[in-house]
Design a protein that fits this description.
515 residues; alpha/beta; Spo0b-associated Gtp-binding Protein, Chain: A; Rossmann fold; 6-stranded mixed sheet; 5-stranded mixed sheet; 10 helices; elongated; GTP-binding protein Obg/CgtA
């Protein structure tokens, strides 16, 4: 008797445990940090300083110089890897700086290289350069200008004579100012760049990291270390008491943006059950509530197709030929009427819609006319698409190459015959949003939620009839665009809170991803 009661209690507890994941309390959720755009400053490592040192041995009163060269700075690499879904970690850091090279030491010991930095980003990230400061290019221009104007000594003169520059030279410790004034400094060596710089992308940087990368990509090579005092030995100066400082590392400001947020994007009005559907399909703990705008940022969940414990739920191969073990779903915040006019943060939410490969329009059958709700969603998406096209055309005209003739100051210097080269608009304002596939041309389907409630069957039949007319060409596409995707659009009735009808969605999504 007691055993039967205990088993009955366990059976009653199982449904409650099952539905607690799909119908939790408002405070039972996990807020996953998310960012799909960020500004990141990277800084390559500066070089270590050269060493001023001399041989110190018994019976050698004034030994020859033996200072080592400084180590080169660390490099900055980037790598797109599977499993990353957000840029929020980089958005928090804002600055990624490689290590500085160690200074040279006596006995001709060179300094160690600086520590490298690896930036990991999600697959589908676009990297665009905003601003760059390269000390090597500045030093190279100064060197060429000095040679052109004759401010440097003749190259045939041994050693050449230069002046003391505190930002370039290091002198022997303990050198007093009077001795410093009498010292003869050689001509500064020409600027040097690491041979690894040949592997960097050309400036301005624009990278489309749309595939998983097995090896990182170099984006900023470390600077060269300074030269030790043996480099400045001449016939007249056998014991130079100076060495050069290491070069400063380059700084690059980058804008990182996710081109593809997820494989499937859930689009719908507020409070239609998108977050519940995400919970039913994945192990996500998105916040669920009976008020509008419960979701204010995309929640990304992962649907596992193969847990390696038996036959996969769906057998599909990706573009790389490997079996797909999962796909991602983005729960996009709810859209309202006039969202394309930025009502209810509409522009920010609509931007996430175009980052999904496949769209699922989530319609609440208990809210009334499902056809009108679907048309409203497509209207906002279509208006946003038209707005983006106008912005793109205006931005293209604004970023035209402008020509500037030489100014009067340049003409006074005797270089009037050389005109300035055309330059791009030097504004470093935020870059425009990425252009991607038109939203209306993406594969899509309809998920009709709350189909278990009474009175929703007739509403779903009207929705099903409307979609059938779209497939047959009897009704135009809801977006009103000619090249819109309308090949075998499907509607799936589900009860997300009971996890009923959702089992066929992974198969449908994988079929659409293949297209």
């Amino acid at each position: 008797m007691h055993d039967n009661a205990q088993s009955e209690n366990q059976n009653n507890a199982e449904p409650d445990a099952k539905y607690s994941q799909l119908d939790p309390t408002p405070d039972d959720y996990a807020l996953t940090p998310f960012a799909d755009r960020c500004i990141l400053t990277i800084e390559a490592g500066s070089g270590g300083h050269g060493c001023v040192s001399f041989v110190r041995e018994k019976y050698i009163e004034e030994g020859p110089p033996n200072g080592g060269d400084g180590g080169s700075g660390g490099n900055v690499y980037i790598q797109a890897v599977r499993g990353e879904t957000s840029l929020h970690k980089l958005a928090r850091r804002r600055l990624m700086k490689a290590g500085r090279g160690r200074n040279g030491q006596g006995k001709m010991r060179g300094g160690e290289r600086g520590a490298d930095v690896l930036i990991t980003v999600p697959v589908g990230t676009i990297v665009r350069e905003i601003q760059r400061h390269d000390p090597f290019e500045t030093a190279e221009r100064e060197h060429e200008e000095a040679e052109r104007t004759g401010q440097m000594d003749l190259p045939g003169e041994e050693g050449g004579k230069g002046s003391y520059r505190k930002d370039k030279w290091l002198v022997f410790p303990g050198t007093v100012p009077t001795e410093l004034n009498r010292m003869v400094f050689p001509r500064l060596p020409p600027p040097r760049r690491s041979h690894l710089a040949a592997l960097q992308p050309e400036a301005p940087m624009w990278l489309d990291l749309d595939k998983h990368m097995e090896t990182p990509m170099l984006i900023a090579a470390g600077s060269m270390g300074g030269l030790g005092n043996p480099h400045f030995v001449t016939s007249n100066h056998s014991r130079p008491k100076m060495a050069t400082r290491g070069d400063e590392g380059m700084k690059i400001s980058l804008q990182l943006e996710l081109k593809l947020l997820a494989d499937l994007g859930l689009v719908g009005l507020p409070n239609v059950g998108k977050s519940t559907l995400l919970r039913a399909l994945s192990n996500s703990r998105a916040r669920i509530g009976n008020w509008a705008f419960t979701t204010l940022q995309p929640n990304v969940g992962t649907v596992v197709l193969d847990n390696h414990k038996g036959r996969p739920a769906v057998l599909r191969r990706g573009t790389d030929g490997e079996l797909r073990e999962n796909f991602t779903i983005a729960d996009v915040p709810g859209l309202i009427e006039d969202a394309h006019l930025d009502r209810g943060l509409g522009l920010g939410f609509l931007r996430h819609v175009e980052r999904a490969a496949v769209l699922a329009f989530v319609i609440d059958l208990s809210a009334g006319d499902a056809v009108a709700a679907l048309k409203l969603l497509w209207k906002e998406v279509s208006e946003y698409e038209a707005l983006r096209e106008r912005e793109l055309n205006a931005d293209t005209e604004r970023r035209m190459v402008t020509y500037r003739p030489a100014n009067s100051e340049t003409r006074r210097k005797g270089t009037s015959e050389r005109l300035e080269s055309p330059v791009m608009n030097p504004s470093i304002e935020e870059l425009p949003y990425l252009t991607s596939t038109d939203i209306s041309s993406k594969p899509w389907f309809v998920v009709a939620t709350k189909a278990d409630l009474p009175g929703t069957q007739a509403v779903y039949q009207d929705l099903q009839m409307y979609i059938r007319q779209i497939n047959n060409g009897e009704q135009p596409h809801p977006s009103g665009r000619k090249n819109a995707w309308k090949r075998n659009v499907q509607s799936i009735p589900v009860s997300a809170i009971k996890a009923e009808g959702v089992e066929i969605l992974p198969q449908l999504v994988m079929d659409l991803l293949d297209e």
